[in-house]
Amino acid sequence: MGMKPLAAILKAFDTEKISILDASIPIDQYCALDLSCNNVDIEHLDITNPVICELYIDAILQENNACIAYGGYLEQRNLYNDKSSFASEENIRNIHLGIDFWSKAGTKVIVPLSGKVHSFRNNTTIGDYGPTIILEHKLQGITFHTLYGHLSIASLQNLHIGKEFMKDETLATLGTPDINVNYAPHLHFQIIIDMEGKKGDYPGVCASNTIDFYSKNCPNPNILLH
Prior knowledge:
Largest sheet: 8 strands, mixed
Number of helices: 4
Low-confidence stretches: none
Strand order of the largest sheet: 1-2-4-11-8-7-6-9
Oligomer: single chain
């Protein structure tokens, strides 16, 4: 199945806005965040440093009287410049395939639609997700997946393949930079149609020469969250 039928199904799934983090935080306390190469405000910041990154995000949150900053789907970023696993001689992987939700470590992660555990793993390579959970969902005969990255170690406890989670249930909590492999605390949320046989991990960033495939296999999560 291609992206079009899934996109239509997800868009119609729930007419209300869906919380992806602690449901007690109102939607009006979310603000947009631009971490793209085009943002002149971060041009001279070492955004790869989690302390500097978090200070910048905190300033944006304060400026907008918000608790959660979000954004980043298909955003080209400098955030991965210091991470050797993202670069090759020919192609640099710097286009973000999910949406990030930046908030405090320990913030609850909420299941946006019912599903079961497909796989989970602590991806400890610098620049990776750290603790990661992938859920499998079925809607109107279409199987797809949601990935939750940069979680706490405790989030992986008591999990097993096939464990079911209902919509609005707490899935996990956000990890600290030492656990989520050197990023400021946030959730990486991504929709994936075909896992391509992968378990506990899936690329969250791609290179420009693979964007056609990945943008179709990983549709915009805002379709679901709207």
